[in-house]
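Customer escalation, tier 2.

The customer says the design service returned an amino acid string that "doesn't look like it belongs to this structure." They asked us to rerun it and document both sides in this ticket. The original structure tokens are below, unchanged.
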């Protein structure tokens, strides 16, 4: 019986209307809704547990901002800047991230659902033990992408360049890596549920042979 084709991420529509300019700055644990932030610096703030719903962030900086347990729902970020981005155990639902520039991004133990990341540069993206559902990452340059222990369904990396990809211990289904270039792979045991093309398979052959204890001679 032929296998079914790899399913693509299902990204919900996102429309933001009637946004207000906030009169005060957000604080940890706040719920902020329907707001627009332009060229705003959140650098160094403690915003742990904060919730943003239906908000637009344009040219904002989140360097060393504490976002542990933060929740983002129906939000759009353009040109988000953060040499150090700390958002462990955060929740992202129906979110767009466009032109993101992250140095070290700590998003381990997080939940991403209906998220699109496009056109960014990320030196290190740590998604260890996160749950990714309907996530589309396109046209990004990523140094190290750590998907150790990730539970992922309908995830696509399209036209990306990844230096080192780590997949150990993940539970993956319909994860599409075709059209993405990666130079090194850690944890080839985590490739179950991943779709690659024939060119990528040829590049991976030595890694897979070593993992299986195969000797190739002649």
């Amino acid at each position: 019986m032929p296998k079914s084709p790899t399913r693509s991420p299902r990204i919900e529509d996102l429309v933001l209307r009637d946004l207000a300019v906030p009169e005060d700055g957000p604080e940890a644990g706040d719920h902020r809704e329907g707001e627009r932030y332009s060229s705003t610096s959140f650098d160094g703030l403690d915003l742990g547990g904060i919730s943003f719903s239906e908000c637009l962030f344009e040219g904002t900086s989140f360097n060393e901002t504490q976002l542990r347990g933060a929740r983002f729902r129906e939000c759009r970020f353009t040109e988000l800047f953060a040499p150090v981005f700390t958002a462990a155990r955060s929740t992202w639902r129906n979110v767009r991230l466009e032109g993101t520039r992250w140095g070290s991004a700590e998003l381990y133990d997080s939940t991403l659902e209906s998220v699109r990341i496009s056109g960014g540069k990320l030196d290190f993206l740590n998604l260890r033990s996160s749950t990714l559902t309907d996530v589309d990452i396109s046209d990004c340059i990523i140094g190290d992408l750590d998907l150790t222990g990730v539970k992922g369904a309908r995830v696509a990396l399209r036209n990306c360049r990844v230096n080192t990809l780590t997949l150990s211990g993940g539970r993956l289904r319909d994860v599409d890596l075709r059209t993405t270039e990666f130079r090194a792979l850690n944890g080839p045991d985590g490739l179950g549920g991943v779709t690659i093309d024939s060119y990528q398979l040829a590049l991976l052959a030595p890694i897979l042979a070593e993992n299986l204890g195969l000797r190739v001679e002649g």
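Tier 2 assessment: The sequence is consistent with the input. Residues 198-212 form the longest helix (15 residues). Residues 33-212 form a domain with the Pectate Lyase C-like fold (CATH 2.160.20). Sent an explanation to the customer and offered a walkthrough call.
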